[in-house]
Amino acid sequence: MALVQSSIPGSSAVRLSFSNSMPTPSKVSVGVPMVKGWRRSSCPRRVVLRAMVQEEAVQGSPSVYARDMERLSAKESLLLALKDAGGFEALVTGKTTSMQRIDVNERITSLERLNPSPRPTTSPCFEGRWNFEWFGSGSPGLLAARVIFERFPSTLANLSRMEIVIKDANAKATANIKLLNSIESKIILSSKLTVEGPLRLREEYVEGMVESPTVIEEAVPEQLKGALGQATTTLQQLPDLIKDTLSSGLRIPLSGSFERFFMISYLDEEVLIVRDTSGVPEVLTRLETPPSIVVEAL
């Protein structure tokens, strides 16, 4: 009897057993113990079983194993290309070169053809907290970022990151902005998602909100501290109704105003790739977040 085992954090070892006395099986059963807090309907976390399986032992397994290895290699290749292109900051500031952009797009298409999710729109892996890694040239996210950086130098305004939380057919996208390297604010866009098919979704924007800025006092330049103190004093003298409105952020109703269609071209437990009606790709990577935080964000 041959025994292959892999160590998985938080659980016992996974064992694959093959008996030489039995006929060649057409299907191998893998028993993975349930970790406390997991649901069977939730997206499985990354589990890699490294085993050398001979064709005589399990018919058909080598081709499945080879495809999985090809997909993992293509995914690592894409993530490396994104890093080499300068990451999110280089993308939104327009510092990526034409060679870097075509290289990333080539690796995106290579990974898309290995998509392991036949119906990603209804997959539990679709839900969660995702970080934007890449926008295409016509992406709404990239256009919004370019507006910020074209109007304000990087010393005045900086878009540090963008992320989105998806849960129960609702999405909340957040752009984190820093002004003068000392004032932080968030622009939040809430939307409703409707499944239009196994790959296609409709996104209807519900509300936009600009959060009340947070001042990092120790990072405020000396020449601006006086002006900041005057502005703070002025705000404190405003009527309570206006102060409450400002503290809770500026909300802009968007229901019935904007919508877009997009399709999911790749989805697994770590990477999400979507394309809009123009075929422009967006690449997102999963952010590990406790379920309670995902629920609170929505």
From TrEMBL:
Belongs to the PAP/fibrillin family. It comes from the Eukaryota. Pfam families: PAP_fibrillin. It comes from Brassica rapa subsp. trilocularis. It is found in: Plastid, Chloroplast. This is Plastid lipid-associated protein/fibrillin conserved domain-containing protein. Keywords: Plastid, Transit peptide. Residues 96-280 form the Plastid lipid-associated protein/fibrillin conserved domain.
